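F.,

This is the one I mentioned.
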C-alpha cells in the first residue's frame, strides 16, 4: 500500500528556485516528517535553513497527529466560512491532512508550500 504523502517545497524568494526539501506522510494512523537529504544540501547552498521544529536533517519525526507547525497553517474547523473553504478544495468534511494536501497550506508570510 502506498503512503499517503505530500512534499514540503521551499522557494528562494529572490531567484524563485524551488526545492522539495522534505516529505510529510501518513502511515498506520501516524504522521511522519523526513528531510530529503540531497535536496536539502542543494537548497542550503541557496539559503534554506532547517525548520525550527525539525532540527535534525537525518531524523524521521513521528507524531500521532498532524505536526502543530503544519496544522497551524490551516483554517480552523470552527471558522464560520469553513464550509465554503472546504468546497473550494472539493471537500465535504474537514480533514487536516487532506486540506493540507489540496490547498498547499501556503502562507503569504513565508516561502513554503506543500505539493503532491
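My design for it:
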Amino acid at each position: 500500500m502506498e503512503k499517503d504523502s505530500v512534499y514540503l517545497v521551499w522557494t528562494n524568494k529572490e531567484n524563485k528556485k524551488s526545492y522539495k526539501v522534505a516529505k510529510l506522510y501518513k502511515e498506520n494512523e501516524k504522521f511522519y516528517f523526513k528531510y530529503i537529504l540531497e535536496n536539502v544540501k542543494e537548497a542550503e547552498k541557496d539559503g534554506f535553513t532547517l525548520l525550527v521544529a525539525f532540527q535534525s536533517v537525518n531524523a524521521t519525526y513521528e507524531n500521532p497527529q498532524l505536526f502543530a507547525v503544519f496544522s497551524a497553517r490551516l483554517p480552523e474547523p470552527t471558522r464560520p466560512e469553513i464550509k465554503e473553504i472546504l468546497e473550494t478544495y472539493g471537500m465535504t468534511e474537514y480533514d487536516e491532512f487532506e486540506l493540507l494536501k489540496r490547498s498547499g497550506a501556503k502562507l503569504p508570510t513565508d516561502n513554503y508550500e506543500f505539493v503532491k
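Residues 4-115 form one domain.

Talk soon.
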